[in-house]
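Reopening this one. Same input as before:
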Amino acid sequence: MADARRQAPTAERRAADEAPAPVSTGAPGAEWRYDGASAEEIRRRLGVPLVALYRSLPSTMDVAHALAAEGARAGTVVLADHQTAGRGRAGRSWQSEAGAGIWLTLIERPQDARAVEVLALRAGLRAALALDRYAGGVIGLKWPNDLYLCGRKLAGVLIEARWQDGAPTWVAIGIGINVRVPASLRVDAAGLQPGVNRTDILAAVIPGLRAAAAMRGLLAADELEEFARRDIARGRACTAPGAGRVEGVAATGEIVILDQGVARSYRSGSLVLAGELEGP
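Same output, byte for byte:
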């Protein structure tokens, strides 16, 4: 689900002031290249207004919020080769080794508040559809924001929204994708097929994320059907956010858990399956 917390504008500006200068924001001639491509080349390929490219950042999410507060256009991408303080849901850390994955945040300015509430699921579904061809198998989904391959975590989505008068001002769509398995997470993590170029992954994923952000309303029947097909938790016992058996996901984005014959819906929290520890 979207994080509806509103951060003070002064904090957004402070994040901008503290961030290092990007390697390139699309200016030709930058020396450092991301898997062989400059920021301007990536921007043109993605068809977005701006790609702010960094060698290393604490968090692309923080810089994206700062840029959005300064008026950055929808479609702006903040991309880092390395993050020192990447984060997942509930402030958990995300391993973001240099060259090991895609660490980015996309700024969008949706108009429909209801759609923001299901954007994490919608974005995860679009990302899974885009990544199948690079994964060598069908990517599974785990409510509310994780992508799995062969039982191991491949990627995660984080949505943070800023609101004014009950309407979204902007959303920051963060996604971390393991291109190769981080050395510190070899047991629990998955990666894409060897030899993939990260710019190809960007070209596949960004259009899907943008399409997800542009959609209105709650999850449609075809989205629910596709999510159910990929749902790694459906029919399995769980201990959180409630104890019981996972029935699936509702159009509102809530997870439905059957507890002693009673279907209960949960809007927030982490899904912990029986026998597994709660992780990032």
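So the earlier flakiness isn't reproducible anymore. For the record, The radius of gyration is 18 Å.
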